[in-house]
Structures are given as structure tokens and as C-alpha cells.
Amino acid sequence: MSTEPKIRILYLCTGNSCRSQMAEAWTNHLKGHLIEARSAGVTPHGLDPGAVKAMAEAGLDISGQSSKDVDTLEHLEFDYVITLCDNAQRACPVFPAKTRVLHLPFDDPPRLAASARTEEEAMMHYRRVRDEIKAFVEKLPEVLTRDE
């Protein structure tokens, strides 16, 4: 059992409704022994039902998670802040110098699903992004320290 402190990651998105929620859940599920993950939004607007459904299909229940404003986490320290959309990258608040901010844009499932003709077609976007986020998380923490 390692006595090293866990790496603390904040996943930041615009609404903290979909991608950041998925990333938080995957990280805590797959890498919780090494990493403590949280998520927040610059303008939170509730948990996306499509994200809840896609994660449930993968065996993770995120229905109890909530959409949080990044300002409510300002008292916490993070080793990494990972912005998952361009808007969050532009609106990202300033963090202490020791916090490394990374940008890792993923497609926005709700935006892509808006033009879908069926629920199944809409869910394809959620599933693809869910799986892309999982693939990223599976490479943690090595991908974080590659450039250091």
C-alpha cells in the first residue's frame, strides 16, 4: 500500500453536466487508488440524462452526482485542472502556480445529439465520448507527467 498522496484532478467543463461528470466517475472508479477526481463547471446547469444513461450502460451510476460551480471548489487544491471543452478553457479561473492546467477537448454529446433523429442515434454520441474519456483515464497518471 502506497503512502504517496493521491493526485488531485479537477475536470472542468462549461455546464458540468456531461463530459466532466463522466471523467470524474471514470477516474474515481478506475484510478481511485491513485487519483482523487472532482468535476465542476464555469456555468453549471444540471446533470445530463444522456450522460447518466450512457454511464449506467457501462456499469457506473452517476445519477447521485450533482452539477457544481467551480467557485464552490476554490478552497480545494488541485495538482491538475483538465478543461474538457473550449469554453471552459477560455473561462478557466486562475489556479495557484503549482496547479498544472491541461486542455483535453472532447466532443459535446448534447450538442451532437440535438440533431439526432432517434434516441438511439443520440445515444451513439454519448457512448462514443464516454468510451473516449474512459480510454484517456485508463492512461492516467502517466499521460499527465509525460511532459514534465
Automatic annotation (TrEMBL):
Q: Where is the Phosphotyrosine protein phosphatase I domain?
A: 7-143
Which key words are in the record? Arsenical resistance, Hydrolase
Q: Which InterPro entries did the record assign?
A: Ptyr_pPase, Ptyr_pPase_sf, Tyr_phospatase_low_mol_wt
Looking at the record's lineage, which domain of life comes first? Bacteria
Q: Name one GO biological process term.
A: response to arsenic-containing substance
- Pfam families xrefs: LMWPc
- Active-site residues, record numbering mapped to chain: C13, R19
Keyword flag Hydrolase: yes
Q: Does the keyword ATP-binding apply?
A: no
Task: Kindly list the GO molecular function terms attached to this UniProt entry.
Answer: protein tyrosine phosphatase activity
Family according to the record: Belongs to the low molecular weight phosphotyrosine protein phosphatase family.
User: Which named protein is this?
Assistant: Protein tyrosine phosphatase
Q: Which organism is it from?
A: Syntrophobacter fumaroxidans (strain DSM 10017 / MPOB)
